[in-house]
């Protein structure tokens, strides 16, 4: 079976310092000097208790839980003879790291996140935690084993990242779909700024990068994650380079906290001083999950048979996707379903289509699903889709097309409607939400995935919902769309558009 090549890469964690040396992007989000204060090109220059950031969750200036800061001494008030520069060992093990990864929003679910070299939005803010292993002496590689929190579907992704030379391998395990049987390896050559067309590769961070840091001063800074949800005040030395800020212990230079307003927040409780590392963690390279054959991941993205990144094609076709197969194109261009896929009304249509689902896939009744479970399934389906299907549907305003006004901010759309349904006294609103997602999930699976991808997901035992037989009373109401029911019904009507084509009689 042909391995699917377009499955989106979950590049979710890096320890990189993209080239971003000044406010050359114009600070488009208007962040104040607490959230952002670059060392260069700021007037007045960035000083003590500026640019310290916090835990961000959105692009607006106030969408951040700022830390707190109390000045102790400016740079010229500290005896340079007593100053200890930050320490970054060439070999170390970090058992616990807490981070917020920040990068350009490349997909609806913030699954594909890579630190960028400017703050031009919209941006993603992804919490993650785990252990790190760094060896620039023997293996010349960097490994991370982390838990990544999805900001949208409220589920965690187990991720292992291995970075050597310009190559990165990302192995993800999705324990919340397919009975935990789905995993993925992404093989990628890392480019500066996260831009695949950039010719400059990115290697694991050089331990000498701290030599570039400039001393700002001494502060009592509120450090995140040390005591649950509370800040812990610690007296630290503040250093900076461009938009990058770092806080270390004055007595020994051990690094505790780092912040870059459009790359992320890092808290390293145990520091990255020189130490030992288990060399077995770097064996094998490439990881077995990325190599074709026994033990390989469900999805291998961008990997050749030996587990290395497939070289980029040169020339005009570099950014072109391989065309979907002829049978997939033909199906996408058929706007009218064949008679065997139609019913005389909504209920009959649901029975007919459910028969096809039951005969080919592992499907369970819609009422056995929660809205949250359906949204978790749709997250996988949306990134597993081939965008060429939607290109065809958009050309002719086909009802199978994706509604981009919803996808643009799917986090607030789904979460907002979930809250409305949960808070309303009418339990029917929760049923409407669930039933609408059942129809939408099936439509995405049938009409936005290639046959190869459907087979892969079926082999991984991904369950599908059956369609609800009941069409809810969601006729347009003259209420200006203000009530909870009107907002939920508006989404429902868009989710069940399959009835417009799969019924012979329109009983809406």
Question: What structural category do the secondary elements indicate?
Answer: alpha+beta
N-to-C CA distance: 42 Å
Strand content: 15-25%
Strand elements, count = 17
Low-confidence sequence ranges: 1-14, 16-22, 313-320
Strand order of the largest sheet: 3-10-11-12-13-14-4-5-6-7-8-9-15
Number of helices: 10
How would you describe what is shown here?
The chain is globular, with a radius of gyration of 25 Å. By secondary structure, the chain is α+β, with helices and mostly antiparallel strands. Strand 10 (214-225) and strand 11 form a beta hairpin. It contains ten helices and 17 strands. The chain has a 13-stranded mixed sheet with strand order 3-10-11-12-13-14-4-5-6-7-8-9-15, with no helix packed on it. It has a two-stranded antiparallel ribbon with strand order 1-2. It has a two-stranded parallel ribbon with strand order 16-17. The longest helix has 21 residues, at 428-448. It folds into two domains: 7-306, no CATH class; 326-502, no CATH class.
In short:
This protein has 508 residues and is of the alpha+beta class.
């Amino acid at each position: 079976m042909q391995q699917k090549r377009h499955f989106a890469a979950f590049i979710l964690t890096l320890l990189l310092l993209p080239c971003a040396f000044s406010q050359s992007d114009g600070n488009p989000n208007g962040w104040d000097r607490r959230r952002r204060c670059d060392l260069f090109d700021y007037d007045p220059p960035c000083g003590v208790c500026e640019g310290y950031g916090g835990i961000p969750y959105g692009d607006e200036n106030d969408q951040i839980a700022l830390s707190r800061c109390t000045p102790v001494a400016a740079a010229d008030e500290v005896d340079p003879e007593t100053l200890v520069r930050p320490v970054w060992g060439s070999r170390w093990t970090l058992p616990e790291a807490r981070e917020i990864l920040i990068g350009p929003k490349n997909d609806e679910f913030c699954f594909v996140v890579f630190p960028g070299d400017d703050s031009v939005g919209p941006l993603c803010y992804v919490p993650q935690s785990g252990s790190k292993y760094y060896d620039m002496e023997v293996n010349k590689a960097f490994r991370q084993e982390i838990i990544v929190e999805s900001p949208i579907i409220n589920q965690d992704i187990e991720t292992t990242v291995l970075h050597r030379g310009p190559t990165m391998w990302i192995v993800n395990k999705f324990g919340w779909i397919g009975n935990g049987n789905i995993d993925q390896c992404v093989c990628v050559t890392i480019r500066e700024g996260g831009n695949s067309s950039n010719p400059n590769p990115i290697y694991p961070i050089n331990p000498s990068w701290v030599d570039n840091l400039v001393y700002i001063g001494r502060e009592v800074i509120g450090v995140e994650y040390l005591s649950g949800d509370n800040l812990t005040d610690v007296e630290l030395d503040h250093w900076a380079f461009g938009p990058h800020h770092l806080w270390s212990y004055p007595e020994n230079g051990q690094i505790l906290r780092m912040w870059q307003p459009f790359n992320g927040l890092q808290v390293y409780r145990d520091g990255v001083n020189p130490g030992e590392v288990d060399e077995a963690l770097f064996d094998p390279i490439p990881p077995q999950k990325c190599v074709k054959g026994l033990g390989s991941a469900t999805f291998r993205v961008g990997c050749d048979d030996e587990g290395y990144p497939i070289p980029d094609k040169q020339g005009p076709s570099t950014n072109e996707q391989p065309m979907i197969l002829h049978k997939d194109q033909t199906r996408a261009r058929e706007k009218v379903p064949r008679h065997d896929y139609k019913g005389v009304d909504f209920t009959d249509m649901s029975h007919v289509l459910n028969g096809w689902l039951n005969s080919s896939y592992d499907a369970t009744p819609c009422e056995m699903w929660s809205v949250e479970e359906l949204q978790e399934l749709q997250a996988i389906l949306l990134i597993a889709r081939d965008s060429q299907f939607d290109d065809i549907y958009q050309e002719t305003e086909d009802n199978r097309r994706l509604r981009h006004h919803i996808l643009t901010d799917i986090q607030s759309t789904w979460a907002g409607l979930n809250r409305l349904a949960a808070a309303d006294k009418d339990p029917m609103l929760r049923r409407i939400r669930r039933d609408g997602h059942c129809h939408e999930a099936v439509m995405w699976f049938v009409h936005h995935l290639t046959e190869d991808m459907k087979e892969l997901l079926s082999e991984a035992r991904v369950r599908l919902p059956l369609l609800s037989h009941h069409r809810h009373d969601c006729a347009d109401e003259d209420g200006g769309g203000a009530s909870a029911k009107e907002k939920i019904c508006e989404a429902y009507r868009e989710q069940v558009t399959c009835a417009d084509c799969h019924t012979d009689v329109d009983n809406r």
